[in-house]
Design a protein that fits this description.
The protein is of the alpha/beta class. It has a domain at about 10-140 and about 200-220: Decaprenyl diphosphate synthase-like (Undecaprenyl pyrophosphate synthetase, 3-Layer(aba) Sandwich). Helices cover about 40% and strands about 15% of the residues. It is built from seven helices and six strands; from the N terminus they run βααβαβαβααββα. The protein has helices spanning about 25-30, 35-55, 75-95, 115-125, 140-155, 160-165, 215-225, and strands spanning about 15-20, 60-65, 100-105, 130-140, 180, 200-205. A six-stranded parallel beta sheet has the order 3-4-2-1-5-6, with helices on both faces. α4 (about 115-125) links the parallel β3 (about 100-105) and β4. α1 packs across α2 (about 35-55) and α3 (about 75-95) runs parallel beside α4. The longest helix is centred in the middle third of the chain and has 24 residues, at about 75-95. The chain is globular, with a radius of gyration of 18 Å. Bound molecules: farnesyl diphosphate (FPP). Farnesyl diphosphate binds near residues 20, 22, 45 and 87.
Length: about 230
Amino acid sequence: MKVQKERGEIAYPRHIAVIMDGNGRWAKKRLLPRGAGHRAGLKRMIELTEHAFLSGAQYLTLYALSTENLQRPKEELDGLYALFRDYFSEHVEKLVKKDIRLRVIGDISLLPEDIVSLIRDGEGRTAEGKRGLLILAIAYGARQEIVSAVNQAVRAGEEVDEEKFSSLLYTEGVPAPDLLIRTGKEKRLSNFLLWQSAYSELYFSDKMFPDFKCADFDKAVSDYLARDRRYGKV
Ligand code: FPP
């Protein structure tokens, strides 16, 4: 992606995070079951992942399922689990070929055991990926992540500084997101990367996730590139 930058202060966002919201409403508008919305969302997710890494992102974090989403009706969760199974069993080979490493963050012990095995297998098979890191947040909740980090520090009996604390989070070793995009019209973070997004630039799109095309993604990046990141300084 070519973006003209007048002042040249900000480079292409190294780390982009996306809250993929709106699958359900996308389906409802078409009189389809919610599962059809998630299937369309997965198709879009695969397309945007490819696009983001080709365009210059090095880290892409996608919010696929929150801990709160686990309270959804069994039928919807079963549909999502079926998509996870398809993705982790069939798509991982493509990530290997594209030299992309996969990491899943969240409390995956809350997921069916066979999916946990597929995730571990996918992470192992892509471990040598050098072109970029794809982070899927599944059964993820930022508050739980923070509480778990606090408990780790307490158990170790040591005071922590910001750097040490960051290393106790699921995102250990990953720079904070530069740009955080949320699709689906809502303007909130919904328990996503609360610590990590302290200075992320936020971008909200009214489009439902399955309608959020590569051109929309580029628009979000262009908007980001025109911003002035001061990190609280003048
Ligand atoms: C939020 O939309 C979206 C989800 C809860 C699921 C997102 C999942 C995918 C895009 C597929 C992920 C697949 C893999 C393999 C990671 P919503 O259902 O809350 O939509 P609504 O707000 O319109 O109801």
